[in-house]
């Protein structure tokens, strides 16, 4: 029988059973105790090492549960057959893996359509609500929440959507999720596969990519100046049409009522047809009243309405919502009911209070003024430039499109501006991959201004001027 | 030309342009202004109504952008053709939709394996960190974060995993996400399709369902008392094997070292093979040392390690993580790099501080003692019962399996206990749908104790006794 000379050190701070376990494990791993070798009985080893039998038993139990040793009834313990296989490689011997940590942006000024202004955010209110939420040592904050989202947030969103967007729904129809892409993943599973989804081009590419990843067949709709054409929809025969009627991204078009109604009529003609209404930034319209939602005109339960707090509060908040028409509630429950909510309960309650206590509405009103100011300034600055042919997509959102008087390609301008530390976007960048060459018309830049101050706007425009009007 | 007698009320609080807009919109919608009818010019209407021309222009602009009217250059404004289509249905004429709000559980005592004890959570520390985070009016909390998760949280998780679980990785390899299911959705997209995934049965059914929804082909591995058998893996020829080596759910098995090494060897034999290691609750082991992770023994970058804060902190926190082996980092970037993180930045920073300031480790140590106390008590209570044949899955996690001395079917017992207000779970409930009949052995109940006090445990056991030993 194997004799184990285990050097125990009762002053080492490491429990004795662990010292025994480690010694045997290492010796099995490196082959010094070979496969099939019989180990001493716990009684024998305990007396040999002058420790209690339970100490040895604990060590053996751990070795057993990890499979280093095996026990045979009435016979004892044997080393398992693992030595030849034992792997103990070191991590990345060739150095760190190739994927670098996200780099700091190399740009001085970024005309991003996705960046917001946070200078006016009511941190005090947010902090107070957060503090009050946690003050009570309320353990219900930590128990698993409802899959579709916390009821109080769904109610608050429901009320908000009714008043602000004319969306006609009940809290039961609302699903809260961690961002639009996650909700599209759910939605694709709710709608089932295989299905054909028609989407405008150019568009919000993340929606296109998400649905493509979910194995949906993606059909591309070209546009006239008012947006999609019904004849294209009828020709392509999709099951689902994804639209942004209130403010198409990136074109800024508002879908005319006539086309809305044609779309609604198309949807109702055949069971299984649905319209996805992505209402991403309709909070920010600077002239006239908000454009009502398509969902509000839908009497036949064919519109899936999607919205987000990414623009109205912040993308880091990670809260979006969708309103399912009644016929999809059962499919949601059946196909996706098992997914736990993706938004922390604390975050949901915080947001519900932020809405219910009126902070959200006041902040929106404030930000509408702030962004309108930025919009008006940026529009007037752009219109002064002789290289700007036309500006469109105006009076809403956080970006403008500038059609240029130039023979240069938009992508070349983007590159040249980048070299000078300014990030602008070519309209082509929002075309579905492989279709960029189909974009017609003058070279066009997309210029977001939401996060920029006057100085940066002017400096950025000066850089573009330098490129477009070299002396 | 149409004459519009618009009754304006300058005291109504409603802007004049909106009153004009509403009047025209409603009359177009209900057909009182018919399609093609010419509207008065803005100049004429302004003078007619005694309002400024810009007021009328704003109303017309809104009507134009919503498509109620059309403008023809040099000719004027015309009502659009929408009246016949105008839909104004009321919501759910037949009453509320059928999907009820989540009901309160009808049970008095729930032996859930997913519920935790929160009585010892350091709310004070959580609150303080949260307060400090928000105190600075720090707008970077609100800007879009890194797709894979905040760097400081990935570093903190990386350190924790190395020390607590022997996981060998760099923060670059860690992806933070809103729960295991979301990470599995990402992972399925990273690994690409079509692929075959082998999973144990019974298992964590949400993982099975999620991968099935992602169109993966699911293969089922039956088990012997140590878990999966390599001959089954070789026979079924999967691309991916999903395992829980440290503590299989629901069986509680620890995978022996020999099988781990066989699995690792299988994975390295052919490119594209991967092992998913779901390490869901290995923090809670009450005897001996923690079982090391499979990932720690993998020198060939074949293990995808997944873990969660759902058990160690709370399911409502919605934070899980996965460690991608180096060969998958590029695929992650290429296929899923466009998905924004699903966890609020505030939550990520809070959690990073909770880990970095030592609270998490102290809380884990505390909870390990708390759950060990509950475990020992519950185990001893169960072992006293004559209807309990054997208890297994012990010394870890938050549930036990009780094999019963009875001819009754486990599902019947579950139903009877339910009638008496006690929710217990049949082992069958964790079998993949359609395979329940293949479960061998004595009727077995799964009994979670994480959230229960002594009184509830005793009361629940008494109810089972009443059912199993009727006098």
Q: Layout of helices and strands, plus pairs?
A:
The structure is a homodimer of 471-residue chains.
Chain A: H1 16-29, H2 42-49, H3 53-65, E1 69-72, E2 76-79, E3 109-110, H4 123-135, H5 151-165, E4 174-177, H6 180-191, E5 196-200, H7 205-213, E6 217-221, E7 223-224, E8 227-228, H8 230-236, E9 240-243, H9 257-269, E10 274-278, E11 303-308, E12 320-323, H10 329-336, H11 345-356, H12 359-383, E13 388-392, E14 399-404, H13 410-419, E15 422-423, E16 425-426, E17 444-448, H14 454-468
Parallel strand pairs in A: 3-15, 5-6, 5-9, 9-10, 10-11
Antiparallel strand pairs in A: 1-2, 4-12, 7-8, 11-12, 13-14, 14-17, 16-17
Sequence of strands across the biggest β-sheet of chain A: 4-12-11-10-9-5-6
Helix content of chain A: 25-40%
Chains forming the largest contact:
A-B, 114 and 114 residues
Span of the ends, CA to CA of chain A: 94 Å
Question: Any idea what the shape of chain A is?
Answer: elongated
Largest sheet: number of strands, sense, barrel closure of chain A: 7 strands, mixed
As a whole number of angstroms, the C-alpha radius of gyration of chain A is 31 Å
Low-confidence parts of chain A lasting 5 or more residues at pLDDT below 50? 83-102
Give the averaged pLDDT of chain A, no decimals: 89
Structural class of chain A: alpha/beta
| Beta strand % of chain A | 5-15%
Number of distinct beta strands of chain A: 17
Helical run tally of chain A: 14
